[in-house]
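We both want to read discrete structure tokens more fluently, so let's practise on a single case. Would you write everything just below, so we can both look at the same thing?
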Amino acid sequence: MQHVQVILLTADPERLDDAIRYLQDKARPMLADLPGSQGMSVCANTELGIAVVESFWVSHHAMREHERSVAPAREEAARLSGGTVSVERFVVASFTRVRRPQPGAGVRLTRMDTDATRIDEVVAAYVDTTLPWLTETPGFVAELLFIDRSTGHSIGETRWQDAAALAASRGAAAAIRADAVAATDSSIRAVEEYSLVFDTAEPA
């Protein structure tokens, strides 16, 4: 099953562009050459100085095996941006792409906490309720669901044609979140919005 490493980079807004250029010009080709790598994506909120960097791997083993190659890139991005990084690792439980999102696409991350014993209920509720709504909503281009079975943490990520489509989906997305919380006894940890910088990932 495919795995993903999710890095949250919190930076000096005036220096975030330096880190993004490094990720695009240096880290991306380095990652592409590693066995088991299935690409990466970067989205950012440049006003706040925050970026989310996702690297996709064919397996947990491949992700862990190349940790020593990937860690220096994280540290360099933090150094260039005057920021800090945190790392989470997940299984990719769902992936749908109507078409590949282009730079500037709107991205929403919904971070949710659930009793780890009920994580399968979260996946089932997402597939049964959230996915149909997404695929029928104008401007939707892609979705991913990341889960951590050991902790009950999950991230639902949706990608939209542009910032306007992202904004237009907010009301309905809030209703869907409320339904998911009620159905699975979960809690929403954070809702974040970004703009896609680049995407070379090929989630399975």
